[in-house]
Amino acid sequence: MELVIVIALIAILAYLLTLGLFRARANSKLARVSSELVILSQAMTTYAQDNNYQYPPDASRGLPSGLENYLSKSQYPASVWPYGVYDWDNWIHPVNGQQIYQMSYRLCTLNDASIDPKRCADPILFPTFNQYSAIFYCVQGPCIPHVDDITAPAYCVNCPVKKENY
Question: How many CA atoms lie less than 13 Å away from 14 in the CB half-sphere?
Fold first, then answer.
């Protein structure tokens, strides 16, 4: 009986340790994405300054061409989550008509979402994320997760009030 209790305790501890490791790994990914969004947003601001304060048009699930000129080779980001993409958003808010400029990281492409919606979520940090969800850095305007779903679950890196919406 004592052996069964010891084995059960070891199993519980191993389970808790595994959960902790998964959470630490997910938090590490979020920290990396947040840092890269800041770098990309700074590069985008410099890009706009060099182009008569004009931001490039929206880049659907990608970064605009020319931005690489404002990043060192080591600063150009790579995907962090398996299907993730960095995304430049240049939108008009669908409700109030204000201009929005933001740098986003989407956990999936639209094609991935049609294949399997779970590709758009992270089971630890963002279990309710969907194809319109984003981790985003607001450059200017009333930033939103996506122009097609302004209430989608999201995480804002630099918003002064509510960081999470999930």
Answer: 6
Tens of pLDDT, residue by residue, the chain (166 residues): 888 888 888 888 888 887 778 888 889 999 999 999 999 999 999 999 999 999 999 998 889 989 989 998 777 888 899 999 999 999 999 999 999 999 999 999 888 888 898 999 999 999 999 999 999 999 999 989 999 999 999 999 998 765 665 3
Judge whether 140 and 92 are in contact, CB under 8 Å: no
Instruction: Give which of 124, 121, 115 is closest to 134, Cα–Cα.
Output: 121
pTM: 0.84
Cα→Cα distances 3→6, 9, 60, Å: 5, 10, 58
Strands 154-156 and 134-140: parallel
| Sheet strands (E) in the chain | 85-92, 99-106, 134-140, 154-156, 164-165
- Alpha-carbon span 37 to 157, nearest angstrom: 8
